[in-house]
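Handout, section B. The chain below has 163 residues.
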Amino acid sequence: MNHVYLGWYTPLQIDDASKNITAKFKHLRRVLKEWKQTLSNLKEIISNVKLVLTFINFLEEFRDLSLVEWNFIKLLEANLICLLKQQKTYWKQRGAIKWVTLGDASTKFFHAQATIKYRRNLITHLQDEQGNILTDHSRKANLIWLAFKERLGTTSFSSIDFV
């Protein structure tokens, strides 16, 4: 947040308000790109942690590990879980951003997302009371209709009293 503050509130000698705000955005973009270069590469760190864990597991095949090594494994595993959560958050946010920028346009991305949602919402099969698996659309629709009809035909209360 400090980088955003410094990038935005850097004094500029421009009198025109529109040119001033444009220059502020450009300066902020440059500051954030420089800040991004200082961040660590998450994929590389995860790869290195997995490599160290693999090496220690390989070492364990030849000799017993000491208590310090076991503690080191536990710390590495906890660190790996934390890194994987960060990576999951990154991809979730990146997907949300991509959906906002490309979601409503008639693009390959939009059609792929629509196809995925359709497949996720599709009922492939149902099982009736006898245990038969129904895959035909008309039989699935009939089973659902009968279930709703059965539920809608009954009531759980007998009367309502008005005062």
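Note. Helices lie at 2-8, 17-38, 42-60, 67-102, 108-121, 137-152. Compare this with the example in section A.
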